[in-house]
TrEMBL record:
This is Signal recognition particle protein. It comes from Nocardioides baekrokdamisoli. GO terms for molecular function: 7S RNA binding; GTP binding; GTPase activity. Keywords: Cytoplasm, GTP-binding, Hydrolase, Nucleotide-binding, Ribonucleoprotein, RNA-binding, Signal recognition particle. Composed of three domains: the N-terminal N domain, which is responsible for interactions with the ribosome, the central G domain, which binds GTP, and the C-terminal M domain, which binds the RNA and the signal sequence of the RNC. Part of the signal recognition particle protein translocation system, which is composed of SRP and FtsY. The chain holds residues 12 to 461 of 537 of the full protein.
Amino acid sequence: IMFATLSDRLADTFKNLRGKGRLSEADIDATAREIRIALLEADVALPVVREFVAAVKERATGAEVSQALNPAQQIVKIVHEELVTILGGETRRLRYAKTGPTVIMLAGLQGAGKTTLAAKLALWLKEQGKSPLLVACDLQRPNAVNQLQVNGGRVGVPVYAPEPGNAGGIEHGGNPVQVAQASIEEAKRKLHDVVIIDTAGRLGIDAELMQQAADIRAAVQPDEVLFVVDAMIGQDAVTTAQAFLDGVGFDGVVLTKLDGDARGGAALSVRSITGKPVMFASSGEKMTDFDLFHPDRMASRILDMGDVMTLIEQAEKAFDADEAAKAAAKMGAGQFTLDDFLKQMQQLRKLGSMTKLMGMLPGMGQFRDQLENFDEREIDRVQAIIQSMTPAERENPKILNGSRRLRIANGAGRTVTDVNSLVDRFGEMQKMMTQMMSGGGMPGMPGMPG
Ligand code: GDP
């Protein structure tokens, strides 16, 4: 889970302050020291650590803390604000061209996740109502063009690539600058409003690679040059970013593989060191594991205040509002059936893994172990049981006698005990729903099994 190391460390630090009416100088020194260790352990670059700790310490000794009703709480607030600052402050959104297609150029090392990211970005743009075109300018790596075509296919976005035999063609050694230029003409002809240019990467920083990217940049004058970097390489990401900044230049950073980065050093350092904002974050193998990078939400996650905004946005995407209203009405009337339950569960599934979802709720840090051990297959088992029931049984579980239960268990490959426990739990849930709804409060989401 993202930032787990830092989250845990900071939580421990704040625990020591809890309940203290006034903070002594020694308290503040100790807190500053612990925050420093927490950041270093998270692999944050040293200059960034120094700056952060100095800022927190200065504010912690000031009036905003000494006059606060709850000084410990005030320290958490300060750390939150300072985290937002080093993560970049305001969310930096994409700038679109005023006329003609918006040109986005991607640069980064091989293996950074550039090709995957190109497709994720294309899908994201499509969801914003744009009509993107992917462009394959990596003509060095033998399989790169093909890989972009495969990824483009997964998200239903066309890929512009040099045709064998053309001037930009692969067997001529390939001229990525020509391909990039031609792709913009192609975009105009086919009415694409965004062009995403995937450039070549190398395993290491390399002058020729930098020159090629710089040439493409000069030729097509992109609206945004995005530097793509693997967050799992930690502080090395900062070194690589600096090299690309000097060699090619870029406007924003995209962090990939955040799902595999428990520490968060790259995310926390790159803005301060390069002066360029993190614009997007990629956090998984699925094409939808991608979003704008929101510094404030990220800071809240680190401090285990939850990321309710993202949760709501995802829910809005996955849930059909009409269906949800119908389900809510049924719940209130005590008519919510196992069939409705199944539908809700399937919608919930579309949101992504339970572990990820729960991780966005405030205060979940203490349950991290349980969350990581949550067995997603439990949901499959519940689904299988409900799907083995007849429509009449789903409508009215009261008719479930012994032989029906045995048939269902066999059909679902489960035991009768599993069936019994699901039916019992559903009965409890129904009771609770009716009580909640008659009390006037509407639950945002249906209760989960388990
Ligand atoms: P490129 O060489 O920069 O084009 O990198 P690729 O797009 O081929 O990605 C390299 C590897 O990283 C592939 O196996 C991807 O599936 C994987 N990958 C890319 N993005 C992510 C991500 O956000 N999370 C995880 N876990 N894997 C990713």
